[in-house]
Write a structure and sequence with these properties.
single chain; Ribosomal protein L32; 9% strand; 64 residues; mainly alpha; Ribosomal_bL32
Length: 64
């Protein structure tokens, strides 16, 4: 049998994220906010790449 005093201990380093109010570890990034920022950055980079492609396609056609 297991000893009664060897149970799991309570986490005291859990806090709420100031921007989304979800639980996170103290002194760590919030996983939800990090994934949200990462997703937005990837979308922004894709939009910029598409704009560069459109600009490169349109500029030679307008010069002829």
């Amino acid at each position: 049998m297991r000893s009664a005093n060897k149970g799991l201990k309570d986490r005291v380093d859990m806090v709420h994220c100031p921007s989304c109010a979800r639980p996170k570890l103290q002194h760590h990034l919030c996983a939800y906010c990090f994934s949200d920022i990462n997703r937005k950055m990837k979308q922004l980079q894709q939009n910029q790449a598409q704009q560069k492609e459109l600009a490169s396609v349109e500029s030679p056609a307008s010069s002829t």
